[in-house]
Amino acid sequence: MNALFANTTGSFNTANGRTALFNNTTGNNNTASGVDALRSNTSGVNNTANGLSALRSNTTGVNNTAAGLEALFSNTTGNYNTANGLDALFSNVSGSNNTANGWNALYFNTTGFQNTSNGASALYSNTTGFINTATGLQALYSNTTGSNNTANGANTLYSNTSGTYNTASGRDALFANTTGDNNSAYGASALVSNTTGFSNTAAGVDALHSNISGNSNTAIGLDAMYSNSSGFGNTASGETALYSNTFGLWNTANGLQALYSNTSGQGNAAMGVDALYFNTTGSSNTADGVGALYSNTTGSYCTAVGRHTLYTNIIGNFNTTIGDSSMFFATGNTNTAIGFASGKGITSGSNNVTVGYRAQVPTSTADNQVRIGNTNITYAGIQVAWTITSDRRWKSDIQESNLGLDFISKLKPVSYVRKNDESQKREYGFIAQDLEDALNTSGAADNGMISKDDKDMYGVRYNDLMAPMVKAIQEQQTQIETLKNEIASLQNTIQELVIPKK
Fold first, then answer.
1. Which of 54, 181, 219, 276 has its CA 20 to 30 A from that of 361?
2. pTM of the prediction?
3. Is 214 helix (H, G, I), strand (E, B) or coil?
């Protein structure tokens, strides 16, 4: 009844239903099926409306397709729109090139253009936003003016209002985002809590789950950077990597549970499973290897390369170690170890240096020790002589040596063959225990010439023998001069006795 009621020169139009194309005058090639479908159309062309009140308000809009009750209901001048579903693109007035598939899809769109909505209530609140794509139930539901967003999955980018250039794929991905821009979330609940954070990338279920305002973060893997809220400039790759990070900055974690406990630590780099696992506030650390710097919590400026390097370090700072298990038990500061298990025995000692396979310092708790090579080394050489600091300003309590000829006379020079020397060449030196006895009987029990390590192995600082030897030579020279004088006196006496006086 009253279909095409006002048509004058319009041609190739089809109207099925009461008041369908009621006001059409000159519009051509329109198809209206349903009560009030394309009712207000006057000169619009190439429109198709199927459903009660579909494209009801369209006047001059062209090339629109509406299928469903009140689909494109308010459209007047919008062109090239497609709406399939109850109330799809209901409020669209002049927006063009929009596609809405699903109940209430793009419901409030008025002037927004080039939007694609697939799913019930997808892009429901969009008014002027443009070039958005929403696929899934309530995807981009709250978007009003945000543009260039892509949402795939139920409730993806649900709360987004004006955020732009966001991509969300996976249920609830970027759910809470409102004004954040340039975010990418792939995986269920990835970046689900983000509101204003921008330039974040999350790939994996619950990756960057708690992020709110953090910026420029990248999280790849299940629960990667799960707890991050405002930290920025972080990169996490691996399941639960940087899991506990809240507002730490500029951290990089690659590997399962790498930097897992980090909360506010900054500038850390962890590569390997469990690397820097317990770190909380420690900063500027580098851990490369499974379990490297595993126990570190607040220690900073440490570098550990190799499996389980600096494993026990908790609060130690400025330690550097390269080699599997090197400085495994160390908790002190400013230690350096290079080589497999090098410095592994160091515990609380600080400022120690070990170089070589299983190289160990004599005492695990002592400071300022250097060890090059292990106990199997049979040769050490250098092209030039060692220079040892000996400045008066560096010394205190300076006294004349009490070790001289008497001490040297007690020494027992020996020859021997080292048990670990395959060549079995004979060497010459002293036995440390013999030297200790000589020192004790000479009143010099408290000295640095003899040392013992944690395994009660003796060592000798041969350089310390130089001063007693010089002292011995001086004392001997004094004796020689005395004897020379005595001999000269005797010679004079003899001469006087032999040669009679004239």
1. 276
2. 0.83
3. coil
